């Protein structure tokens, strides 16, 4: 399972994602993040990314899952 983190089709690391999220949250305090993951991505990985987003000032988010369940 690929656990890479993407922002608009670009692979990002924790620091880059936090920087981008903080910048966008500053521009729009009502911003909502959309976090999408394959069904096979471990729950802990999704929570980790959610924590990164929340720590950057974005307080609203939606979660989606993609892919078949096997």
Distance between the termini: 13 Å
The SSE string, one letter per element, is EEHEHE
Would you report the number of β strands? 4
Largest sheet: 2 strands, antiparallel
Mean pLDDT: 92
Low-confidence stretches: none
Percentage beta strand:
25-35%
Which range best describes the helical content: under 10%, 10-25%, 25-40%, 40-55%, 55-70% or over 70%? 25-40%
The class by helix and strand makeup works out as alpha+beta
The number of helical runs is 2
Short description:
The chain is of the alpha+beta class. It is 39% helix and 29% strand.
List the defining traits of the structure above.
alpha+beta; two-stranded antiparallel sheet; two-stranded parallel ribbon; 2 helices
Describe the protein:
This protein has helices at 14-27, 43-55, and strands spanning 5-7, 10-12, 32-38, 60-66. The model has no long low-confidence stretch (mean pLDDT 92). The protein starts with a strand and ends with a strand. It has 70 residues and is α+β, with helices and mostly antiparallel strands. Helix 1 crosses helix 2. The protein is 39% helix and 29% strand. Strands 1-2 form a two-stranded antiparallel ribbon. A two-stranded parallel sheet has the order 3-4. The chain has 2 helices and 4 strands.
């Amino acid at each position: 399972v690929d656990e890479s983190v993407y922002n608009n089709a670009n692979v990002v690391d924790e620091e880059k994602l936090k920087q981008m999220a903080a910048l966008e949250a500053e521009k729009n305090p009502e911003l909502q993040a959309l976090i999408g993951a394959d069904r096979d991505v471990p729950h802990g990985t999704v929570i980790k990314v959610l924590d990164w987003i929340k720590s950057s000032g974005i307080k609203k988010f939606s979660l989606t899952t993609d892919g078949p369940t096997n």
